[in-house]
Specification:
- The protein contains 9 helices and 10 strands.
- The protein is α+β, with helices and mostly antiparallel strands and about 290 residues long.
- The chain folds into 2 domains: about 5-85 and about 120-280, no CATH class; about 85-120, no CATH class.
- The strands form 3 sheets. Strands 3-6-7-8-9-10 form a 6-stranded mixed beta sheet. A two-stranded antiparallel sheet has the order 1-2.
- It starts with a helix and ends in a 7-residue tail after the last helix.
């Protein structure tokens, strides 16, 4: 089966990378996530009929979150998964290849794609107790991991499996926070709209997500995404039910909180482009 990221890449490229921080009236800038792009991206795994068990739905969420971080101004080589292959590669390696003579760049990239040690398919980092695969990551050699996002999806048997997802997410947060106390950490949970058919299941999911960010040593932000689609519909169509999600758990609040956490925990001379986009002004800093 074709790599899901390769199928999503042209869809992402077709959408302009606009500044997500929007100024409305006299108030501060607010985050405006590209939900239309997410709906379009989600149609790819839904059309395949692979379901949530294959992981391709969750990887689609990974690609979207990574794209939102690039919209926010984070360097394209610091955000994993990258838009183009290889999806995971140290920023310094990418910068080195870009500085090579043009005739050598293509060959170097091909060699890099074959080297899974330098460019693995997944980002795995050591936590306090065990190595954990991180779905979305911002990292650089001199600063280490600065943002860690875990994503999960669930399409059925909600009441039966919600407790398991809570246990996994809680344990992963403690493991990663124990080694990276200053990293911004988030957890995004994609639910199919059929969760509303199981009495109390959606309320349990909301409660779970709020508890996952209630303590100082777990997640900075958590997010619920509720998506509606119908099996066998051609062409496939996915609709996000954003009005169903409480404001403190929606994607706009989630992204704004994570970006703010990264900027608050780093000096002003770092992530200058992100700060400029958020503040809508040019900072006199290189």
């Amino acid at each position: 089966m074709v790599d899901i990221f390769s199928l999503l890449e042209p869809i992402v490229l077709a959408h302009p990378e606009t500044n997500p921080w929007q100024v409305r009236g006299a108030g501060p800038a607010v985050y405006d996530a590209d939900f239309k792009l997410l709906e379009e991206m989600l149609t790819v795994p839904v059309a395949e009929g692979t379901g949530t068990q294959s992981g391709r739905l969750a990887k689609t969420i990974d690609a979207w979150v990574a794209r939102e971080l690039r919209r926010s101004g984070f360097d394209e080589d610091e955000v994993w998964p990258r838009l183009s292959a290889p999806r995971v590669v140290p920023r310094e390696v990418s910068q080195f290849i870009k500085m090579l003579p043009r005739r050598l760049q293509s060959e170097a990239r091909m060699q890099l794609l074959r080297n899974t040690t330098v460019a693995p398919s997944d980002a795995r980092i050591l936590g306090r107790a065990y190595v954990k695969q991180v779905d979305v990551l911002i990292a650089q050699w001199s600063r280490g991991p600065e943002l860690l996002v875990s994503t999960k999806s669930m399409g059925s048997s909600f009441r039966k499996n919600l407790a398991n997802r809570f246990e996994e997410a809680y344990g992963d947060a403690k493991n990663l926070r124990g080694r990276y106390p200053l990293a911004a950490m988030g957890f995004l949970f994609l639910l199919r709209s059929t969760i509303q058919e199981e009495a109390g299941a959606f309320e349990r999911a909301v409660d779970m997500m709020r508890k996952l960010k209630a303590e100082s040593d777990v997640y900075d932000a958590t997010c619920l995404v509720v998506a509606e689609w119908h099996e066998g519909m051609k062409p496939a169509k996915v609709t996000l039910l954003n009005d169903l999600v409480p404001e403190d758990l929606n994607a706009n609040t989630f992204m704004a909180t994570l970006v703010d956490a990264v900027l608050t925990r780093t000096p002003v001379e770092m992530h200058v482009e992100v700060r400029q986009r958020r503040e809508h002004r040019v900072l006199p800093i290189e």
